[in-house]
Amino acid sequence: MNLREQHVRSRMICPSFLIAASTVLGGGCAFAADLEHEGLSRQAVEIARPLGFPITNSMVVTWIVAAGLILLARIATRDMKKVPAGLQNFLEWLIEGLYSFLESIIGAHLVKRTFWFFATIFIFILSANWFGLIPGVGTIGWGHSTADGFLVQEPLFRGANADLNLTLAMALVFFALWIVWAFQEVGVKGFLKELFAAKGDTTGVLKVLMVVVFFVVGLLEVVSILFRPVSLSFRLYGNVFAGENMLETMSRLVPGLGWLLPVPFYFLELLVGLVQALVFMLLTAVFTLLICQHEEETPAAAHITET
After folding, report:
1. Residue 276's CB: how many other CB atoms inside 10 A?
2. Region of residue 201 (left: phi > 0; alpha: psi -120 to 50; beta: else)
3. pTM higher than 0.85 for the full model?
4. Measured distance CA(1)–CA(10) in Å, rounded
5. Can you tell me the distance from the alpha carbon of 163 to that of 169, in angstroms, rounded to the nearest whole number?
């Protein structure tokens, strides 16, 4: 990879962070928690409403993470050098590593079209997950004093991916891109053929039966495809939200040791944050590969092409 390609790929990821930040503007305002119980709310808390626009604590974290990543990328690439060092070296290592990893999974052709999204989504989810582990996130805010200490009912910050609005928004963005990439790679006809066309060489009555069977299977596949955004969003949200609940439980388990008991679980959550970012990226990459892969040429066709 030459320096120009490194520069382009390093810069390509910067605008993509805006996608994750902007999607939450539409989805992140949908719900605000009605705090009728103590403990970690399942929904984000509305902390401000300037000009009638609701802002939740998870939206604040989303904007901070997105702005931090954009700033980091700009600083790392503002003075590109032939022999990279510091942030430039780290960013190039990260981008090249992700590019090679995805290329080994979805192929050289498809990775050129889709890398900007998969790399962005991985880095954003990982950064948001780890940012949520910083002391103060979920523990600084408004509340009241109790016998066991101060209880925060409306935290100023909340883990970005602990808000279903953001995870659903990212899944819906992928779903729209998945359709676009599928049409670009195989066309509308190839898309429908991949879903409903009968596979294999059959004749007679068996061929008619296979057509009916694969049509029914195609309908089931359509239902499965429509549920993918739901499964992607709930998987990420559920794991991150469960981690936050576990940390809060450990901090309240033994009065006076709330600062010590969660420490081992913080290391576990670091691993979980990495795994969940990888899972989201890999699932979306594999879903894209399955619909965009072209049928292999027969040996005869390959021979004709070569000659």
Report:
1. 22
2. beta
3. no
4. 12
5. 10
**Alpha-carbon gap, residue 241 to 40, rounded angstroms:** 9
Give tens-digit pLDDT for 76-113: 999 888 888 889 999 999 999 999 999 999 999 999 99
Report CA-CA distances (Å) from 89 to 101, 190, 275: 18, 42, 24
Instruction: Please state, in angstroms and rounded to a whole number, the distance separating the CA atoms of residues 47 and 29.
Output: 11
* Domain residue extents for the chain: 3-296
CB-CB contact of 152 with 33 (8 Å)? no
Place of tokens 């069977």: 213
Q: Are 88 and 80 in contact (CB under 8 A)?
A: yes
What is the distance in angstroms between the CA of the first residue and the CA of the last residue of the chain?
Answer: 31
Summarised one tens digit per residue, pLDDT across range 237-286 is 999 999 999 998 888 888 778 788 889 999 999 999 999 999 999 999 99
Q: What helix, strand, coil percent values describe the chain, rounded to 5?
A: 70, 5, 25
User: 229 and 220 in contact (C-beta within 8 Å)?
Assistant: no
**Count of H-run helices and E-run strands, the chain:** 8, 4
- The amino acid that residue 23 corresponds to is T
**Torsion angle defined by CA atoms of residues 190, 171, 105 and 198, in that order, rounded to the nearest 10 degrees:** -30
Total residue length of the chain = 307
In this structure, what token pair is assigned to residue 27? Answer: 């989805």
Strand 141-146 to strand 55-56: parallel, antiparallel, or no bridges (unpaired)? unpaired
